[in-house]
């Protein structure tokens, strides 16, 4: 092979060897540039998403704080209204409590009612304890004979006029207390609050 030809082949082989390296080098630098651009774009995208998320969190947090403060204000308003209502009722409750106490005293004095003495309590409870210990509770209980209709009618017929009057007064008191309890429970003098009759049925 002539020298001239061998030089040409050698040049060709160097060129052939360099060519892929140059081609790879240019594609590697392009790939690196593309990767750098992609990373920059991803970074910008992540940054924008993070700022959006942060703004959403801030807005929702401010909404929660404003709702909590408005709820606290409403609770304070309701509480102060309730306290004012209860405070306005205290003088009336004290007055009517004293009136009821005085009426009770008058009733006790007119009926000559006195609380039982200490000896009466002791004797009653001593008898009850002895009957429990002795097992004679069955004897202390009223018999079935006393609950017969004829016995009950006989007891009613044998009552005096004073006992009838006392029973009438006690019945009137029970009815009166029941009626007052109903008025207080309904918070109205007549009827119940609410819509149409039978709505919940």
TrEMBL record:
Under Pfam families, the record lists: ATP-synt_G (PF04718)
Q: Name one GO cellular component term.
A: mitochondrial membrane
Q: Where in the cell is it found?
A: Mitochondrion membrane
Which InterPro entries does the record cross-reference, listed alphabetically?
ATP_synth_F0_gsu_mt
For whether the record's keyword set contains Acyltransferase, the answer is no
Q: Which GO terms describe its molecular function?
A: proton transmembrane transporter activity
User: Record keywords: Transcription included?
Assistant: no
- Name one process (GO BP) from the record: proton motive force-driven ATP synthesis
Q: Which UniProt keywords apply?
A: ATP synthesis, CF(0), Hydrogen ion transport, Ion transport, Membrane, Mitochondrion, Transport
- Highest taxon, organism lineage: Eukaryota
Q: Which family does it belong to?
A: Belongs to the ATPase g subunit family.
Query: What name appears for this protein in its UniProt entry?
Result: Mitochondrial F1F0-ATP synthase-like protein g subunit
Phylogenetic lineage: Eukaryota, Fungi, Dikarya, Ascomycota, Pezizomycotina
């Amino acid at each position: 092979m002539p020298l001239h030809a061998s030089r040409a082949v050698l040049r060709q082989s160097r060129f052939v060897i360099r060519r892929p390296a140059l081609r790879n080098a240019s594609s590697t630098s392009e790939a690196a540039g593309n990767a750098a651009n992609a990373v920059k774009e991803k970074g910008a995208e992540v940054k924008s998403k993070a700022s959006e998320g942060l703004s959403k969190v801030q807005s929702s947090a401010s909404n929660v704080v404003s709702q909590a403060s408005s709820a606290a204000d409403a609770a304070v308003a309701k509480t102060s209204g309730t306290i004012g209502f209860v405070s306005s009722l205290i003088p009336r409750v004290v007055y009517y409590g004293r009136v009821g106490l005085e009426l009770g005293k008058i009733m006790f004095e007119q009926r000559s009612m006195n609380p039982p003495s200490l000896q009466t309590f002791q004797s009653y409870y001593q008898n009850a304890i002895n009957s429990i210990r002795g097992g004679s509770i069955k004897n202390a209980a009223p018999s079935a004979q006393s609950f017969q209709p004829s016995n009950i009618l006989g007891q009613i017929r044998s009552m005096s006029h004073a006992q009838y009057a006392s029973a009438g007064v006690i019945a009137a008191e029970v009815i009166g207390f029941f009626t007052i309890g109903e008025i207080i429970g309904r918070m109205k003098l007549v009827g119940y609050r609410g819509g149409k009759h039978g709505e919940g049925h």
